Description:
About 85% of the residues lie in helices and about 0% in strands. By secondary structure, it is mainly alpha-helical.
Amino acid sequence: xxxxxxxxxxxxxxxxxxxxxxxxxxxxxxxxxxxxxxxxxxxxxxxxxxxxxxxxxxxxxxxxxxxxxxxxxxxxxxxxxxxxxxxxxxxxxxxxxxxxxxxxxxxxxxxxxxxxxxxxxxxxxxxxxxxxxxxxxxx
Length: 139
C-alpha cells in the first residue's frame, strides 16, 4: 500500500499541471499580497471605502497576475493581445466574483474587512486558474 501511494505522489508531483498550480500559487500569492496591501493602505491612509479601494487594488494586482501567468505559470507563446483579452475577461469575471463576495461578507455578514478579504482571496483563485489554464493561456 505504501509503495502505491508513494508512486502516486511522484506521478502527481511530476505532472505539468502540478508545476502550473505551484507557479499559479506563487504568482497568485504575489498578486493577492499586492491587492491586500493596496486595499489596507487605501483604507487606512486614503480613507477610501474597502470596496472602492479594492477596485484600485485589483487594477494593479491584475498587472502582476497577467505578466506572471503569461510568462512564467503557463509560459504562453500565444499572441499577447489575444492572451491579454482572454485573461482580462477571466480576471473581470474573477473580480466580479471577488467584489460580490466581498460585498456580501462586508455588508450582509458584517465581517471585518481584513478577514473578509482573506476569505475572498482564497475562493476566487481556483476558479481563475481553471479558466486561465484551459482558455486564456491554452496552447
